[in-house]
Amino acid sequence: MLIRRQPRWALPEAMATPEAVYLDRRRFVAGGAAALAAAALGGCDRPGAQDIVPAVPDPSGDLYPVARNTAYTVMRDMTPFSVSSRINNFFEFGSSKNIAHKAAKLPVRPWEISIGGLVEEERTIAIDELLAKMPLEERVYRHRCVETWAMVVPWSGFPLKALVDLARPLGAAKFLVMKTFLNPELAPTQRQDWYPWPYTDILTMDEATNELAFLVTGVYGRPAPAQFGAPLRLAVPWKYGFKSIKSIVSFAFVEKRPDTFWEVVDSREYGFWANVNPDVPHRRWSQEMEWMLGTRELFPTRIYNGYGPEVAHLYDADDPKYFF
Ligand code: MTE
Questions:
Q1: Atom of ligand 1 minimally distant from the CA of 198
Q2: Which pLDDT tens digit goes with each residue over 237-272?
Q3: Which residue's alpha carbon is at the smallest distance from atom 23 of ligand 1?
Q4: Is position 3 within any domain?
């Protein structure tokens, strides 16, 4: 008889839930039925997310596909859309990974983005106006989730630096604070007040203007469906995936940073820097290995997720704070 033993890096989904939240009785009671239902559905065997009809049509389809920037390629197979579009983390719509159908209710138009804080002039800009101004390109990036799974996705979008240039931050700006929409009517988990909504993440100015920091508007040569974080989402591939904030509505340049969403949820488990590092385990699991969504192929985790040449100079490699 073949007995399959789970190696220690193969996490059951529940383990990936932050401990503080997992242990919260209210959430445990409320989330238990949904988690059981998701398990019963078998996760990956759900119908393809390509069949899901969005709440509001995205008018930007004609912009895609955009030319691929061949400076950013990876030595791994692309994760098929049929896989990456139906296994998603988007806690606003629930803690299960099967949230594509729920996220599709997010109306991605009209969508206004505010740019403010320490800038020459505060402004609000509609997503389609922003798209018209920005240099769109495609980049194939590796994505490494703190939960140990990984994927390779062709993102379309523009460098975050282009938005920073548009914003014209003042010299005193040290951090860029990004926030996701807040709409508890639409996003059921936002009614759970033990999470610090809205989802917030932050980069230093050096990180935000690094060539790799990318704002995503499309995937696989088409506008991004909602579950990927439409209509505007960050991709910072050298950091754990939770830094890549979805469905952004505001950018604020500040001198002193507030805490991020995950620091407030559990600062012992999810630090600010979150640079991928195989030698720094998560408090509850090893980060030595990663496995690919879809194929479950295993690879050793790489420092900065393999993007050291582009970003290592931003950090003191001997200072452990940068790897948490
Ligand atoms: N952004 C928001 N607003 N809400 C989220 O729950 N999850 C993060 C990140 N951005 C998340 C988010 C995590 S944990 C990961 S791994 C990635 O989105 C997942 O992106 P994907 O669903 O496209 O794979």
A1: 3
A2: 999 999 999 999 999 999 999 999 999 999 999 999
A3: 228
A4: no
pLDDT digits 0-9 by tens, 91-104: 999 999 999 999 99
Residue 90 in contact with ligand 1 by CB distance below 6 A: yes
pLDDT at 84: 97
* 155 ligand 1 Cβ < 6 A: no
Is 238 a pocket residue for ligand 1 (Cβ < 6 Å)?
A: no
Report the separation in Å between the CA atom of 243 and the middle of ligand 1, taken as the mean of its atom positions.
8
Protein residue with least CA distance to atom 19, ligand 1: 89
65, part of any domain: yes
- The label of the residue with tokens 């106006």 reads 129
pTM: 0.89
Number of structural domains the chain divides into: 1
Ligand 1 touching residue 189 (CB < 6 A): no
pLDDT in tens, 119-139: 999 999 999 999 999 999 999
For residues 24 and 45, give the distance between their C-alpha atoms in angstroms, rounded to a whole number. 29
Percent of the chain with pLDDT over 90: 82
Distance CA 181, CA 81 (A): 25
The domain in which residue 288 lies consists of 13-308
Question: 144 CB less than 6 Å from ligand 1?
Answer: no
The CATH number of the domain holding residue 181 is: 3.90.420.10
Nearest to 279 by CA among 310, 301, 260, 248: 301
Tokens for 93?
Answer: 């719509």
Q: What is the mean pLDDT of residues 39-51?
A: 45
Could you tell me where the DSSP H helices lie in 61-209?
A: 81-84, 100-103, 127-133, 160-167, 205-208
Please work out whether the CB of residue 245 comes within 6 Å of at least one atom of ligand 1. Answer: yes
